[in-house]
Amino acid sequence: MPVKNRLAEMQDEITALRRDIHEHPELMYDLPRTSALVADKLRAFGCDEVVERIGRCGVVGVINGKSDSRGRVIGLRADMDALPILEATGLPYASKHKGKMHACGHDGHTAMLLGAARYLAETRNFDGTAVVIFQPAEEGGAGGKAMVDDGLMDRFGIEEVYGMHNMPGLPVGSFAIRTGPIMAATDDFDIDVIGKGGHAAKPHECIDTTLVASHIVVALQSIASRTIDPLRQVVVSVCTFRTESEASNVIPPRVLLRGTVRTLEEKVRQTAEARLKEIVAHTARAFGARAEIDYRRGYPVTENRPAEAEFAATVAEAVAGSVNRDVAPMMGGEDFSFMLNERPGAYIFLGNGDTAMVHHPEYNFSDEAIPFGCSWFAEIVETRMPAA
């Protein structure tokens, strides 16, 4: 089953909707316009139930199939939030809100799932129930967890759940997936190195936190190179190095380091966390300083179960003609992982073409991908719950 004709017919309309969302980006849980637009559209499409404020401002639509019995219940998820980025695309429909931008394609995800919802509500060519999930705060706010904690799965009886993300670098209309980990666990840390400040000309009277922090930064790289099995994957990145002084002749009493740890396995995650804390504490102590560590566990690993991953790939193959079933995992994070921890399902990549990478100020979602994404969402429902 290739791209569905009805969804191809709707491409211009869905594109206009996507660009409208793009012009009006909203962040995290502050999505009044986007959430209201989604809810209004779902009601206009004829969804049997539309529920707002799941996970603070998430929206859920319920579409019943032809059969009178409830049957199987499949969840389809899209994220709605934008990023705090100044857009640099120069497009006619560029963000109207300075410092906010749909730089990850969530505008496209939302528009595609709305298109699929309209199609499913029009055709009802399935026996069971489709639950369309529009989630806030994927970009660091754990909106997926908020919706799960608000009873999403049990309240709507969801048995399986599927999600999608566009991917620059993959050809438009192509799909890529893998069994097992596909996106990383994302942990963050703050390290406050505390020593004794003073005049740069008298370092012997100080405990030089800049020196100590520099040794910590270098030593942390031994986690990947000397602690973790080289056949396993781990990323330890120190991204902020901030002193209390900008003067060239002052040794600061404190230095703040901030960074992230990315892993694809829970055992590796535990080892990396433990080793980071040991390295920081002992390195600081070796120089007579001390360090305070705030280590925060973020999104868990996004992991596709074998049966559901193969099903999602088979549907993608039907829509696009072929699919990469062994794409390399990415070390970025995704809070769809919280939903996959609650129910079986799968997460797939949709090609966005030769565009800037996500989270870049020149990124733009490819509207040519819309019929493929809409068709995949719809075909997941029709194939998993075929009409008698």
Give descriptors for this structure.
alpha+beta, Aminopeptidase, 35% helix, Alpha-Beta Plaits, elongated, 388 residues, single chain
What is this structure, in a nutshell?
By secondary structure, the protein is α+β, with helices and mostly antiparallel strands. 35% of the residues lie in helices and 24% in strands.
Determine and state the CATH class of the largest domain: Alpha Beta
Report strand %.
15-25%
Main beta sheet: 7 strands, mixed
**Uncertain runs:** none
Specify the CATH architecture of the largest domain.
Answer: 3-Layer(aba) Sandwich
Structural class: alpha+beta
Q: How many domains?
A: 2
Structure description:
With 388 residues, this protein is an alpha+beta fold. It has 2 domains: 5-182 and 301-384, Aminopeptidase (3-Layer(aba) Sandwich); 185-297, Alpha-Beta Plaits (2-Layer Sandwich). Helices cover 35% and strands 24% of the residues. It is built from 12 helices and 15 strands. A 7-stranded mixed β-sheet has the order 1-2-4-3-5-15-6, with helices on both faces. Helix 4 links the parallel strand 3 and strand 4 (129-135). Helix 2 (11-23) packs antiparallel against helix 4, helix 3 runs parallel beside helix 4 and helix 4 (106-123) packs across helix 12 (370-384). It is elongated, with a radius of gyration of 24 Å. The protein starts with a helix and ends with a helix. The relative contact order is 0.20.
Task: List the SSEs and their pairings.
Blueprint: H1 5-9, H2 11-23, H3 32-45, E1 49-54, E2 58-64, E3 73-79, H4 106-123, E4 129-135, H5 143-149, H6 152-155, E5 160-167, E6 175-176, E7 180-183, E8 185-194, E9 198-199, H7 209-220, H8 222-227, E10 234-243, E11 250-251, E12 254-263, H9 266-286, E13 290-297, E14 302-304, H10 306-320, H11 337-340, E15 345-351, H12 370-384
Parallel strand pairs: 3-4, 3-5, 5-15
Antiparallel strand pairs: 1-2, 2-4, 6-15, 7-14, 8-12, 8-13, 9-11, 10-12
